[in-house]
Design brief:
With 534 residues, the protein is α+β, with helices and mostly antiparallel strands. Helices cover 42% and strands 20% of the residues.
Length: 534
């Protein structure tokens, strides 16, 4: 009897222990992770088994992942395998192929430019060449993706292309050995005048710091005494590259950015660690609502330390840091792991609670800031933003991007001009114009400086372009044309310059009518005070 009692007593304690353990486990795991995982698996299994039509399981899983991430922040994203390769190319800074930029115009592959240092440039392939055959195969209709598949491939492999060159009206055959092709972050690095350097930076990839440093060293040899760094429409990239570029301008030991996270190992701080000769160089940074993330780290650090001037429009407002996790099918999860803060403690991230992605992104464009001098940051209209102060006592705001020290808006283009751009008519018209007149331009102008100074878009060429646009279905509007006339002429001229001198010709022409750039140039006396008083 005693043995039976002991047995039942022990069994009761065991059962009680198991049940207590289950309850404790549930209490510890407040979100019942395993239970929720089983629920998802059950729903997926039931759907596969009983749904009225055959289901695409991978598609359902990807939809579920995207649905889950939509409950987090706007910048945590799932990247499918097909997109991941392109994304990694952009951040890695290179791909393998023949090294051309191209557009498809009227079902023809047109070479926009041969990438410097690539195999196509080495063989003499030029802007304006038409690729009519690839590996002996001609085509009637081809997509951008089809062209990439045919022209890209492992380094050392060969591809045969037949090119028609309108300037000499001849077909030419090329055997191109594919190679590693660089994707540059620095779009242009030129001297605007005898002492003002200009660098346009499109992204923060693995090679960005090296490119910027090389560009600055090159401009320094040409006599650079001051710099405009253009970060407009630069949506960011690697935080590490933004830190190193900020280090170029800041004294050793100064804070550049720091992060906070729920997970301690994701909390870091970054300071200027190396001495550079540019720490006293007057600098002005151009920004707009397309400047985000790493761009905001650089402009935030410069502004917080009163090191230079920020000019343009309020930046996007992305203060979240993502880490990319590779998944087993070559897809990836880019997950927000921390928030970043500027040296004085500003969180640049805009509020995204209770907003869908469309409204969140639209909000960055619909800005209500007033144009004008904003050194003391008195033009901000949102009084709910947290206030911070720079070491010199200047007021700056957090919680919604970087507001410039001088707010200059870029005037919107009319519907007429927007239609010209949307239909790619500037490029298409200049392509046909250069087929006829390219030789005379090339022989007359040795460099972009002479072209920029002396070449003019006359009324005859302008009228010819307008008539061309009409034939392409763009309805002419006299009032809108007059409003944008200077821009239209500059765009046509820049398109010609780009054909011969790439971006080094393109940017200086367009900058002549750029109100944000022109304002920046006029502010160097103020920027010099900041540089000296740092």
């Amino acid at each position: 009897m005693k043995n039976k009692i002991s047995y039942f007593f022990g069994l009761t304690i065991l059962i009680f222990g198991i049940l207590t353990g289950i309850q404790i486990q549930k209490a510890i795991s407040t979100d019942n992770f395993q239970e929720q995982l089983r629920k998802f698996n059950d729903v997926l299994s039931l759907t596969r088994k009983y749904y009225v039509d055959a289901v695409d399981t991978p598609k359902l899983v990807e939809a579920a992942i995207n649905g889950m991430l939509s409950e987090l922040d706007p910048h945590s994203v799932y990247i499918p395998p097909k997109q991941l390769e392109q994304v990694e190319e952009e951040f890695r800074g290179n791909f393998e192929g023949i090294g051309i930029e191209f557009q498809i115009i009227n079902d023809t592959i047109v070479v926009v430019s041969a990438i410097p240092g690539g195999p196509s440039e080495a063989l003499g392939i030029m802007a304006g060449d038409r690729i009519v055959k690839i590996n002996g195969e001609s085509y009637k209709k081809i997509t951008n993706e089809d062209v990439r598949k045919k022209l890209r491939g492992p380094k050392g492999t060969k591809v045969e292309v037949t090119i028609y060159r309108p300037s000499i009206k001849e077909f030419m055959d090329f055997t191109i050995v594919r190679d590693k092709i660089p994707l540059y972050s620095v779009d242009a690095a030129v001297m605007i005048d005898h002492e003002t350097g200009y660098i346009s930076l499109s992204r923060f990839a693995q090679t960005t710091f090296d490119e910027v440093k090389a560009a600055m060293d090159s401009l320094d040899k040409l006599g650079m005494k001051k710099l405009i760094l253009d970060l407009r429409n630069n949506s960011g990239g690697y935080m590490s590259e933004a830190v190193k570029i900020s280090d170029l301008f800041l004294d050793q030991g100064k804070m550049i950015v720091y992060t906070k996270s729920r997970i301690p190992e994701f909390e870091e701080e970054y300071r200027a660690v190396r001495p550079f000769k540019y720490e006293n160089l007057p600098v002005i940074i151009l920004v707009n609502n397309g400047s985000a993330s790493a761009s905001e780290i650089v402009s935030g650090a410069i502004q917080d330390w009163d090191r230079g001037l920020i000019v343009g429009e309020r930046t996007f407002g992305k203060g979240l840091v993502q880490r990319q996790f590779q998944l087993n099918d070559n897809s990836a999860l880019r997950l927000t792991i921390s928030r970043y803060y500027t040296p004085v403690g500003r969180l640049i991230q805009r509020d995204y609670s209770k907003k869908d992605k469309i409204d969140y992104y639209k909000e960055s464009i619909d800005q209500d800031t007033i144009e004008g001098e904003n050194i003391e940051h008195t033009l901000e209209q949102d009084t709910t933003k947290p206030v911070y102060f720079t070491p010199k006592g200047r007021k700056v705001f957090g919680g919604g991007g970087i507001t410039p020290d001088y707010i200059v808006k870029s005037p919107p283009l009319t519907k007429f001009t927007s239609s010209l751009l949307r239909k790619n008519l500037f490029y298409q018209y200049i392509l046909s114009y250069l087929d006829k007149s390219g030789k005379s331009i090339q022989s007359k102008y040795r460099d972009w400086k002479g072209f920029k100074k002396d070449f003019q878009i006359d009324e005859s060429l302008l009228n010819e372009f307008i008539n061309y646009a009409k034939k392409q279905g763009v309805e002419f509007n006299q009032d809108e044309f007059e409003k944008d006339k200077d821009y239209i002429k500059a765009r046509l001229k820049a398109q010609i310059a780009r054909n011969y001198w790439r971006n080094d010709g393109w940017y200086p022409v367009l900058l002549e009518i750029d109100p944000q750039f022109k304002k920046a140039v006029s502010l160097f006396p103020e920027a010099e005070k900041f540089a000296k008083a740092k």
